[in-house]
């Protein structure tokens, strides 16, 4: 009897152990499904299992030698600011223009290594405006330099150029009522090749890339194909301004940087009142026809960009881009308050954050620090995040000059002298 009872007890124990085991297994499966449900079947595109982790293991060393060709009106200032801050955090030398070149490398002249301030050589990084010259850049930069650049849809870019350089580019100044429509109806009536700053009025991208902006792909298709080949040979990544966050994801992967390294504040944006809300289709077509070389470059590199995104896994790139946007919102809120409003220069009290205004008709927006924030590492990081190009270039030059000489006193950030007039483009007499 006792033996029967003992066996009964044992089998009950076995049963409950099996039940517990089954229960545990069941729970784990359900929890796994809940946890990864979105990665399995119902959101397969958004959360694929195959996305590489944000931080590689073992980590690939961050790439430190970068030359960014800062093309005009393409979100280049925002990319430049990312690179400047990275360089500072890693104690890298940034090539900066000699003061006689202003804050650009004597643009629109072809780049020469002579334009680089001696206190900023040999550099790890370069990100100021220049007209591309491969041999001269290779003479200056380390052999393992990664070259990157950015393009923007030519109609949007041209609308921005027309508004920003309206007072400086004679071709634009000739147009009655500063009308973009009038210019694009008959560009040849206003445009004179070879005159001062003509490159802002015709195929600016091609010119910045070192090409001949007067060539037309309609008459000479081989020229465009050759220019594309040259760009492909040198640049490891051509970013696209319309897909800025996706571009940064590709950039940070190329350079083995963290997502935090490419956080940014949007710089150099015009106020809504200074821009066309939408570019009418006919105007966009005319802008693309007039800038046919730029349109050809953009179409080609936009297509290669998306092929590259597809190779990296589109869903993974989108997921990272979304993480970047969320982290960026958190950072902007922390730096500039709950509503990180872009504001006109007149409303920015912090001198170092006032962006240059190209004319009374165009408002370039910026950020301001909340009052009473005081000094400190967070304030300094926020200040740099929103610092316009000229103030940041001047600050970096002073800092690097000092590093080359006396090392003891750190460069003050918050109380540096007011910036010199920005983009000291020569004033052109009315009616030229
Ligand atoms: N993150 C991001 N995404 C998309 N677009 C952006 C971004 N950052 C800047 N911008 C827009 O880029 C224009 C300014 O370009 P640049 O800084 O290259 O101008 S400049 O040549 O250095 O003066 C300017 O365009 P417009 O406002 O149309 O003039 C900015 O609004």
Class by helix and strand content?
mainly alpha
Q: Provide the succession of SSEs.
A: HEHEEHEHHHHHHEHHHHEEHH
Number of helices: 15
* Main sheet: strands, sense, barrel: 5 strands, parallel
What kind of oligomer do you see? single chain
Could you tell me the CATH topology label of the domain at 66-265 and 277-335 and 389-403. Rossmann fold
| Main sheet strand line-up | 2-3-1-4-5
Per CATH, the architecture of the domain at 66-265 and 277-335 and 389-403 is: 3-Layer(aba) Sandwich
Small molecules bound in the structure, each named once = 3'-phosphate-adenosine-5'-phosphate sulfate
Mean pLDDT equals 87
Question: What amount of the residues lies in strands?
Answer: 5-15%
Distance between the termini: 118 Å
Low-confidence residue ranges: 29-47, 415-432
Outline, from the CA principal axes? globular
Amount of helix: 40-55%
Region (Disordered): 401-432
Biased composition (Low complexity): 422-432
Cofactor: Mg(2+)
InterPro entries: Gal-3-0_sulfotransfrase, P-loop_NTPase
Description of the structure:
It is a single chain. The chain has 432 residues and is mainly α. The protein has a domain at 66-265 and 277-335 and 389-403: Rossmann fold, CATH 3.40.50. It is built from 15 helices and seven strands. The chain has helices at 2-36, 76-89, 134-140, 154-164, 170-173, 180-185, 187-190, 204-208, 221-234, 244-255, 281-290, 292-312, 314-336, 377-385, 389-404; strands at residues 66-69, 94-95, 125-126, 146-151, 235-240, 343-344, 365-366. The strands form two sheets. A five-stranded parallel β-sheet has the order 2-3-1-4-5. α11 (281-290) crosses α12 (292-312). The protein is globular, with a radius of gyration of 27 Å. The termini are far apart. The model is unreliable at 29-47 and 415-432 (pLDDT under 50). Residues 72-78, 160, 241, 244, 266-270, 275 line the site of 3'-phosphate-adenosine-5'-phosphate sulfate. It is a single-pass type II membrane protein.
């Amino acid at each position: 009897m006792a033996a029967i009872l003992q066996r009964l007890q044992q089998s009950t124990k076995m049963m409950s152990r099996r039940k517990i085991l089954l229960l545990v297994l069941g729970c784990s499966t359900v929890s796994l499904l809940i946890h990864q449900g979105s990665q399995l079947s119902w959101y397969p595109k958004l959360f694929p299992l195959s996305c590489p982790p944000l931080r590689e293991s073992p980590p690939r060393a961050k790439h430190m030698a970068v030359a960014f060709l800062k093309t005009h009106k393409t979100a280049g200032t925002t990319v430049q600011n990312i690179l400047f801050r990275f360089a500072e955090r890693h104690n890298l030398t940034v090539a900066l223009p000699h003061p006689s070149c202003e804050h650009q490398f004597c643009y629109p002249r072809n780049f020469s290594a002579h334009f680089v301030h001696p206190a900023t050589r040999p550099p790890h990084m370069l990100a100021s405006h220049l007209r591309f010259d491969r041999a001269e850049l290779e003479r200056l930069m380390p052999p393992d330099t990664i070259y990157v650049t950015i393009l923007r849809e030519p109609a949007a870019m041209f609308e921005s150029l027309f508004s920003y350089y309206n007072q400086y580019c004679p071709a634009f100044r000739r147009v009655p009522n500063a009308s973009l429509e009038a210019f694009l109806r008959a560009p040849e009536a206003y445009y004179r090749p070879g005159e001062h700053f003509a490159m802002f009025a015709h195929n600016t991208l091609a010119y910045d890339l070192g090409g001949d902006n007067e060539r037309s792909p309609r008459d000479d298709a081989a020229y465009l194909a050759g220019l594309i080949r040259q760009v492909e040979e040198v640049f490891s990544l051509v970013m696209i301004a319309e897909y800025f966050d996706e571009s940064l994801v590709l950039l940070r992967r190329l350079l083995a940087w963290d997502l935090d390294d490419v956080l940014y504040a949007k710089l150099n944006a015009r106020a809504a009142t200074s821009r066309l809300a939408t570019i009418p289709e006919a105007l966009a077509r005319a802008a693309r026809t007039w800038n046919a070389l730029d349109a050809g470059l953009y179409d080609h590199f936009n297509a290669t960009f998306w092929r590259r995104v597809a190779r990296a896994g589109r869903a993974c790139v989108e997921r990272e881009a979304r993480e970047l946007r969320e982290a960026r919102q958190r950072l902007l809120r922390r730096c500039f308050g709950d509503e990180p409003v872009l504001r006109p220069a007149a409303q920015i009290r912090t001198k170092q954050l006032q962006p240059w205004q190209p004319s009374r008709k165009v408002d370039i927006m910026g950020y301001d620090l909340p009052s009473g924030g005081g000094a400190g590492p967070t304030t300094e990081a926020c200040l740099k995040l929103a610092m316009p190009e000229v103030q940041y270039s001047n600050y970096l030059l002073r800092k690097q000059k000092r590093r080359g000489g006396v090392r003891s006193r750190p460069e003050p950030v918050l109380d540096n002298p007011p910036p010199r007039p920005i983009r000291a483009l020569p004033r052109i007499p009315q009616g030229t």
